[in-house]
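Response to reviewer comment R2.3. The reviewers asked that we include at least one raw input/output pair. We reproduce the pair for GTP cyclohydrolase FolE2 here without editing.
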Amino acid sequence: MIDMQKMRDYRNIPIDKVGIKGLRYPIKVRDKKSSGLQSTIAEISMYVDLPHQCKGTHMSRFVQMLHTFRSQVSLESIMTILENMKTTLEATSSHIEIIFPYFIEKKSPVTGSKGLMDYTCTIIGSSHPDEDRDMVLRVAVPITSVCPCSKEISDFGAHNQRGEVCVSTRFKKFVWIEDIIELVEHAASCEVYSVLKREDEKHVTEFAYNNPKFVEDVVRDVGKVLLEDDNITWFSVSAENFESIHNHSAYAFIEHGDPGIHGGGTSH
Ligand SMILES: Nc1nc2c(ncn2[C@@H]2O[C@H](COP(=O)(O)OP(=O)(O)OP(=O)(O)O)[C@@H](O)[C@H]2O)c(=O)[nH]1
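Raw output as returned:
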């Protein structure tokens, strides 16, 4: 059978990233609360570089290789997967993006009603020639925000909305997803819950009203804590409020630290 991918290409153009995108796959992620592993379904993209003289990469090998890891796909195994990708695909660099919902059981603030909150997390890893590696963990956290300006100028009420804060980090040791979520939720006007009874709803409404925040306040409050954390070598924080009085969002972004030679391109 002819192997098209193995044929020669004459255009003299190397390819930076080629591979598979959006493959759904079960993974396990370390769960701080249970001290065990949480099973979830990820959407995985895997790429390698391709030299100018090669016509095509071998797409089937990405999936075959991933399958050898099966339920071992996790934060800890990513670097091994990246190295395996380079060997299996005969490449000099490899790149993986894993997007998954991470679930945390939360109790409502007054009645203690339990429900699962989902947080979208992304792990971006890459391996380059000479063992040069990079990994970014990104966590998106929904929040409630009350506008300080609206509260100040209005005779009663203040506009409030759901927002999303995205924290991306490069780090020396392991980082718990739960710790990033907690940090962001503390910086919000109020955190978001999946279950709220009427007593809870009264509490979160008043709590948020007493704690108004601009998007600027949120990114600064999150950034201040990350700056004090020795384990974090680089971070970015974005806050987007889906404004209830506009048909556009309010947005703020900060980035700090050394993103390494790979730049801050994976920031938000
Ligand atoms: N490179 C490349 N492959 C594609 C493209 N579209 C489909 N394919 C894949 O080509 C694959 C088959 O090629 P290979 O992965 O090289 O399969 P193979 O030659 O049987 O496997 P090896 O012997 O391991 O190289 C199929 O899985 C298709 O999904 C494309 O645009 N580019």
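The mean pLDDT is 93. The helical segments are 59-69, 78-88, 148-153, 177-187, 198-209, 215-227. Further pairs are available on request from the corresponding author.
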